[in-house]
């Protein structure tokens, strides 16, 4: 029953040899041909037009000096050089990573527990699951406004619970503001990840648990030795989504803190907006945007690499 | 401090959509040859009622028709800057004068109004000079006042002051004494929406003006950044620090906003005694709590500072909003006729009816017809008698400096930077 955590034989790892059995196309024989490149044309065009082209334009803009009026002036490496010596830029990257890591650390355990619990079959669970799901249906803007009101130091919850919140200056302090951003993010997105885990937990073959029960394993052991390993790929999917979401956090910052107090919550995405659209420095803003793209790509690659997601290793070998 | 800041950032989410709509709405300006239309772009809010009325009046007699386009949402300036070089650019547009139009003037997009004024001197002489001058750049007028003036006043809750046995402070010492007494009574002495940052900036504007007079800021704006390190500047910062350290604003002001009604509620509910705010505080409170506004809302000038060089009658705030004209407008004569309406009797009456205070010389004639004549009269006299009306710092500087000013102001109040840090930040502001 521990086959799940056993690595498949070397021949099956990474290579195509281990996978054909799960490919419907092969299973049904030679009658079905592989889809041609034609199928990918619309998506490729769309991607090129709305992702690659803007990216190239942003890259070009990052070498110019442009305030949105008149023509951009070529500025060489000026924006990039300035960025290297810009303490706010370095801090904003660090902040983005911090908020992302905290987000993953808070949301992952919560959503696994909730998801596994919600995978049960009792009627009340279905109702409660639906209730849990509500935050996801609200826009990030509405959620931010809501929490801003709830956390108001004079008229919100902190005013009623001074023993816990002190003067309630949550958004006026670095640690408090970061904490609120992480909390609000978790409040909104945990339901989504719970949903993913719920689906994955439901897909775990019942026989595994039946066998474990025969072997005398209790609930906790079952959770750690069956459920958790079986959720491995789901966990990676969910964490990649969290990382991408965390690095591009923007609306909550815009509404809850505006990057403040001072520049304490000026994460890279907000800093980019501030430079480009508030200070009308589109060259500088573009350079920040590219740095963000670069960092996000590197982090995503690392996550994929380290987790073995790229190899798409199955978790049900031997069943 | 900007008028646009009265509206919550929530609206920012609608930016893209709104822009798209307004682009669609004014698609004919440049391309439709012989369309016979001028497009007037204004900030979308309750005041549009008046602008619609003025446009309708204009269209009754004019062959060239005016079309009113509104951009809702808090990020007017950003949307304006996006379209102003395109075919969708308006002929006439709303702005805050000074720094808010300086980049456009530098880019050669705006029409100096001397020509219009030469033909109709009333386009200048019918407005209060201190207000009109806000839209004068490099000696040339680029705008005509088109809404109400918004000086910053020290508002108070009369009942809270009376309960504590205090009166409105006239001097800095009064203010400090009031702060002490109010703290002892368990109140937050002064409500401050520090989360928005611009309300914090208002305190700097007044203290700097009272200590050093308007010259210091004018010099700084003109490029003489050395004045930020002057003895006057350091004294102003010391006074501000003294007020913060005395606990005048409590300790959670950066978690409070004006734009979501947080700080006005502190004043209205009597949790705080004062709030320094633009004259729109009156209508804000009236929306939230009409009873409090008529009977409990007090207002007065900013206190004097001992040995201050600034005239105690100086005011700061937004002098007014302005209509500026694009150089490439195809109907300059129609535009000139349209601008004339901004000092008409009908214009003044329409604004007074919704609580705005126009800055035309004929305004006093109609003050008695307003809903709140005492308040408007007080404001009008304040503005008329003011030797200097300092435009909000974040509007006097070009938009590229706004974030840096706000950050510097907030960090100084929070004690994250000292006087040296603040001075350095202000010295490194982009001049244009």
List the helices and strands and how they pair.
The complex is a heterodimer of chains A (319) and B (432).
Chain A: H1 24-27, H2 41-61, E1 64-65, E2 73-74, H3 78-84, H4 87-118, H5 123-137, H6 140-150, H7 157-160, H8 162-165, H9 174-202, H10 206-214, H11 219-230, H12 232-247, H13 251-256, H14 268-278, H15 282-307
Antiparallel strand pairs in A: 1-2
Helix pairs in contact in A: 2-15, 3-15, 4-9, 4-12, 5-9, 9-12, 12-15, 14-15
Chain B: H1 15-25, E1 37-43, H2 48-61, E2 65-71, H3 76-83, E3 92-95, H4 102-106, H5 114-119, H6 122-125, H7 129-132, E4 136-137, E5 140-141, E6 144-145, E7 150-157, H8 158-163, H9 172-184, E8 188-191, H10 198-212, H11 214-221, H12 231-245, H13 262-268, E9 272-278, H14 281-288, H15 290-296, E10 297-300, E11 315-318, E12 322-325, H16 332-340, H17 345-353, H18 363-366, H19 373-385, E13 389-391, H20 393-396, H21 402-413, H22 419-427
Parallel strand pairs in B: 1-2, 1-3, 8-9, 11-13
Antiparallel strand pairs in B: 3-12, 4-5, 6-12, 7-9, 7-10, 7-11
Helix pairs in contact in B: 10-11, 10-12, 10-21, 14-15, 21-22
Tally the helices of chain A: what do you get?
15
Radius of gyration based on Cα positions of chain B: 21 Å
Rg of chain A over CA atoms, rounded to whole Å, is 24 Å
Q: Runs of chain B with pLDDT <50, length 5+?
A: 1-33
Distance between the amino and carboxyl termini of chain A? 9 Å
- Total number of helical segments of chain B? 22
Biggest beta-sheet profile of chain A: 2 strands, antiparallel
Strand order of the largest sheet of chain A: 1-2
Number of strands of chain B: 13
Give the total of domains of chain B.
2
| CATH superfamily label of the largest domain in chain B | Periplasmic binding protein-like II
Instruction: Summarize the amount of helix of chain B as a percent range.
Output: 40-55%
CATH fold naming of the largest domain in chain B: D-Maltodextrin-Binding Protein, domain 2
CATH superfamily annotation of one domain in chain A: MetI-like
Calculate the terminal CA-CA distance of chain B, rounded to whole Å.
Answer: 20 Å
Mean of residue pLDDT values of chain B? 89
- Class of secondary structure makeup of chain A: mainly alpha
Following the backbone from N to C, one meets helices and strands of chain A in this order, namely HHEEHHHHHHHHHHHHH
What general outline of chain A do the C-alpha atoms trace? globular
- Reported by name, the CATH topology of one domain in chain A is MetI-like fold
Name given to the CATH architecture of one domain in chain A: Orthogonal Bundle
